[in-house]
Design goal:
Helices cover about 35% and strands about 20% of the residues. The chain is an alpha/beta fold. It has a six-stranded mixed beta sheet, with helices on both faces. Helix 3 crosses helix 4, helix 4 (about 120-135) crosses helix 6 (about 150-165) and helix 6 (about 150-165) packs parallel to helix 7. The longest helix has 16 residues, at about 180-195. It starts with 5 loop residues before the first strand and ends in a 32-residue tail after the last helix. The structure holds adenosine-5'-diphosphate and magnesium ion. The site of adenosine-5'-diphosphate has 12 residues, from strand 2 and helix 1.
């Protein structure tokens, strides 16, 4: 049997020692396949970002393994040896901290293109302009520095920068939480398109409505553990864990688990221009 595209098995991470020891991630397993989005939801401090950092190789787990197409990514000292490096890319919550304030959007993306591909400066710029255009950033905005762009544009620039590596998996850590609702909708539609093109997305959010829009499966984290996992619709309709019920009830404007929040369609193709229920995000 072919191994999953990206698989984490029994991953644990602890920080500090003695009385200060925090078990940030405890025995978490997940897998994602091309064209699929897996959601990770949980309140602040539940271990989502630590898990994300493990998946992209920024944090070595104390226990457990991460494999890309069956190959362990933490071999030797570093992570993601050689050609594996580009395969899994991260989009952070706050593009302000991940984008260099002195670099234009175009330069930031061109730098990533040039880092991952042998090409001339001109080729890197052309490729960057094309990627940015694809993310809805026209050339006139591409030459601007991050502070002159809107929050939504900045987030799409960091997606373009991640895509410049030519990844098979995107790990997006709270990508919508720092941007306004229409920018959120735009970003989610963009992710939807990337999924249709075969990218795999691990989508982290404290917002179940965002997860529900994109992810067919979801893992619910609490205190470092996965307390519930399965089909997003099943979990929305019939959460089996009290904590999940609390998360669902805390969606703004929702009283309890219900069917009003934009449901994940059965076929992704029918999803192209579907309107997003902004109230639910
Ligand atoms: N570098 C670190 N050093 C010490 N504790 C950390 C570090 N990173 C995260 N933690 C702790 O691990 C727990 C999980 O944090 P995090 O993964 O950021 O959760 P989330 O992203 O769900 O908010 C928290 O208690 C946090 O304080
Ligand atoms: Mg976090």
């Amino acid at each position: 049997m072919t191994p999953p595209l990206l698989r984490a098995t029994d991953v644990s991470v602890a920080f500090g020692r003695g009385a200060d020891r925090v078990r940030a991630v405890r025995g978490v397993s997940l897998a994602v396949e091309p064209g699929e989005s897996v959601g990770i939801v949980g309140e602040s401090g539940s271990g989502k970002s630590t898990l994300a950092r493990v998946l992209v190789g920024l944090q070595r787990p104390d226990e457990g393994t991460v494999e890309l197409r069956g190959r362990s990514v933490f071999e030797g000292e570093g992570a993601y040896p050689g050609a594996l490096r580009r395969q899994v890319q991260m989009v952070f919550q706050d593009p302000y901290t991940s984008l260099n304030p002195r670099m234009s959007a175009l330069d930031a993306v061109a730098e990533s293109v040039a880092f991952h591909d042998r090409c001339t400066r001109a080729q890197a710029r052309d490729r960057a302009l094309a990627l940015l255009g694809d993310m809805g950033i026209p050339p006139g905005d591409a030459v601007k520095k991050p502070r002159l762009l809107s929050g939504g544009q900045r987030q799409r620039v960091s997606v373009a920068r991640a895509l410049a590596a030519g990844p098979s998996v995107l790990v997006a850590d709270e990508p919508t939480s720092a941007i306004d609702q229409s920018a959120q909708a735009q970003l989610l539609n963009l992710f939807n398109r990337l999924l249709r093109d075969g990218l795999a997305i691990v989508l982290i959010s404290h917002n179940l409505a965002v997860i529900r829009y994109l992810s067919r499966r979801v893992h619910v984290m609490r205190d470092g553990e996965v307390v519930e996992e399965g089909e997003t619709e099943r979990i929305f309709g019939a959460p089996s864990h009290d904590y999940t019920r609390t998360l669902i009830a805390s969606i703004p404007g929702r009283e309890a688990a219900g069917t009003e929040v934009s449901p994940q369609p059965t076929t992704r193709d029918g999803n192209a221009d579907r309107r997003i229920d902004l109230q639910a995000l």
